[in-house]
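Thread: sanity check for a docking pose with magnesium ion

Original post by kr_44:
Hi all, I'm comparing my docking run against an independent structure prediction. Below are the sequence and the ligand SMILES. Could someone generate the full complex and paste the structure tokens? I mainly care about where the ligand ends up relative to the chain.
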Amino acid sequence: MNNIIGRIHSTEIPIAVDWSTFKHHILVAGATGSGKSNTVANLIKAAQGQGACVIIYDQKPDYKNICNPNDETHLFQAWKPEVVKPFGLEKVEKYCLYQGEGETEKSEKAIAIRARDVSLEMLINALFPYPDEGNQRDVFGGLLSYYRDNKDKNWTLNKFSTWVRDSRKKTQKDGNTQSQLDRIAESQGWGKLNEMTLDAMQRKMEQRKMQWLDSLEDNSHKSDTGIFSDIDGDSSVSRGYFVPRKHLDSSKVIVIRTNADGREYGLFLSYMLRKVYDLKRSGEISFPIVNIVDEAQDIFQGEKAIRDAATSTMNEIIRKRRSKDIGFVIAVQSVSQLPDSVLTNLNTRLIHRQNSVEELRKAIPSASQNLMANSLTFGPGEALVSIFEARSVVHAEMAPSPFELTKTSAKPRQTLGDQIGNNPA
Ligand SMILES: Nc1ncnc2c1ncn2[C@@H]1O[C@H](COP(=O)(O)OP(=O)(O)OP(=O)(O)O)[C@@H](O)[C@H]1O
Ligand SMILES: [Mg+2]
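Reply from moderator J.T.:
Ran it for you. Here is the predicted complex with magnesium ion included:
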């Protein structure tokens, strides 16, 4: 029963997924209100049933009440209870990215990460994502690498920032007015650093630094406030930072409320994917992992720098992954929001209502013209389904979520069709 995610439309023939489906990655797409989150919920249930550790990147957030049975009980009337029924999940841990005091909810632990544990390239892209910031980006990357390699291998963004400020002070030496930074630039062959670029770099770095980066070193937070997830056993690591190895386990569901803009979501996701991949590769964890990336358009529709970095991290892991048992479930509103290089790796397609035939063709190219035309008017929960290694595309009724989904938007969900239909003119 745990493997069942829906049935062929107007029949009792179940549609199920197994480990091989997860291992070859899954795309869930659908316009707003079409039933994506309910479908993803069934995949979470199925992945947990397979013994995977399920890591949910909950951007919306949809999965705060995952331990409670679905309260939309009427949705289950059409289903036999031995096949599909409401129940809350067990073995769930809830986290959120640390966003400052008071942002963490009672049931959650806040996650903080050291900037130096994040790949430098990702950090540069996340802090300076815009195309016209090339100079600031280069100066930031160059100076930070220099600082790390020559001054302080235990650097933090705050320490770096203070060092930049101090090193920019001009001093008189041998009749020359020069700063320490000028001398470093000279010795490194960088030429003269532009003061305006330095100003902009410093200002933006301070403004854009994520709250969850280096939070424990930042003096404004005390490490004993208990807001951070628990302590790593390794004494070489300062206490309180999030260490994925300690939290992952077979059949465990880790919900991480990311609560972030695309820049932060992309940076955090890339960090986590790499960390978890390393744990698998080194053999420190043996159970399979399923990554649930909901609202993936927030990453892939963002600035090019973020999109490219997230795409390459994801593709790198997907390419190497088969033997490593790491599966992805990617949910987006429309397939055109995903880079083609990611899309081609998603071998199972669960496609709810899309807004155009072009999107459908991209999402599920093997569907017949007829199915595609019908699917434009699908109701919630209806989907075109193509499971990895199944021969054909089917019109499916997806099962409602076993657990409660958080109701976030009070906005009425209206399609263009609804609006035209409701307008007597
Ligand atoms: N499988 C289903 N069977 C019956 N009704 C469903 C099903 N899936 C969704 N619905 C109905 O549609 C509503 C919206 O579903 P859901 O939140 O899963 O959509 P979504 O595509 O994730 O929307 P959003 O774009 O807002 O995230 C649900 O509250 C439920 O009433
Ligand atoms: Mg949703």
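DSSP finds 15 helices and 14 strands in the chain. Hope that helps with the comparison, let us know if your pose agrees.
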